[in-house]
Amino acid sequence: MIDSISDSVILNNGIEMPWLGLGLMKIVNERKMIEAVNAAFESGYRSLDTASYYNNEREVGEAIKSSGMQREEIFITTKVWNDEQGYESTLSAFERSRKKLGLDYVDLYLVHWPVTGIFHETWKACEKLYHDGYIRAIGVSNFQIHHLKSLLSNCKVKPVINQVEYHPRLTQKELRHYCNQTDIQMAAWGPLMRGRLFENPTLTELSQKYEKTIAQIILRWDLQNEIVTIPKSEKANRIKSNAKIFDFEIESEDMVIIDGLNTGERTGPHPDLFV
């Protein structure tokens, strides 16, 4: 059982990543970023997730600096965007990200989307950065099974993680099974479905049963499914509330009920149609 915010998963290259992290998409104001990151660190979070596309890596770097946290205590993820992909472009994009963050290295670097015809070259650049010691782990985001199969057929370094949209309306069971088979950890972006599940009657009943918020129920469901989860919030009270998911366990029959909410509905684009 994952029973502490300090618990972490060992990725396939041996490094540890916290099960719970803070997503930082759409936070572009430096003051709000500092407030959010401080609230997260005070609540025990040690993992922050950003991307070049979020246009806030500099603000993330300032928040880390102002927090006083030691670099080795925190886990930082960023991503290479679609128009930055390709071998040389990715090397340049990473260096821009690293400098904006003000870091000597990044813990996890992800290929943000599987851009057809390019992501293999992007991955080769990630492998170089990994071997050169600028990144502790490399992974992908929004990859479907066929993308992963294509990548695994000729890569030298296996992705440690596949970060995808994942919530009770989109349980991605086939993708989960494939990732488990290939020792690629799945991670959830948009785990709270942008609030669209907060009035769901089934989750409302479970919220009352466990005396937890619907958000806490969903995030606990994630963890019990062994999915790294990175809920996004800039409000201190929600960040702190989302961290209070380690003092209870959802019963197996209720896990099945939540699984049954799956409809395949997405809040973001389908990877095969977006790029």
If you had to describe this structure to a student in words, what would you say it looks like?
By secondary structure, the protein is α/β, with parallel strands linked by helices. It has one domain: Alpha-Beta Barrel (TIM Barrel). It has an eight-stranded parallel sheet with strand order 3-4-5-6-7-8-9-10. Strands 1-2 form a two-stranded antiparallel sheet. A hairpin with a 5-residue loop joins β1 and β2. The radius of gyration is 18 Å and the shape is globular. The mean pLDDT is 97.
What best-fitting shape do the alpha-carbon axes yield? globular
Q: In DSSP terms, counting alpha (H) and pi (I) runs of 4 or more, how many helices? A: 11
Unreliable segments of 5+ consecutive residues: none
| Name of the level-1 CATH class | Alpha Beta
Strand content: 15-25%
Give, in order, the helices and strands.
EEEHEHEHEHEHEHEHHEHHH
Relevant CATH superfamily: NADP-dependent oxidoreductase domain
Distance between the termini: 38 Å
Active site: 54
GO molecular function, one term: oxidoreductase activity, acting on the CH-OH group of donors, NAD or NADP as acceptor
Organism: Halalkalibacter wakoensis JCM 9140
Binding site for substrate: 112
Secondary structure layout plus pairing:
Elements lengths: L7 E3 L5 E3 L3 E2 L6 H14 L3 E3 L7 H11 L7 E6 L6 H15 L4 E6 L7 H13 L3 E7 L3 H8 L8 E5 L7 H9 L3 E5 L11 H10 L3 H11 L3 E2 L6 H7 L9 H8 L11 H4 L1
Parallel strand pairs: 3-4, 4-5, 5-6, 6-7, 7-8, 8-9, 9-10
Antiparallel strand pairs: 1-2
Helix pairs in contact: 1-2, 1-9, 2-3, 3-4, 7-8
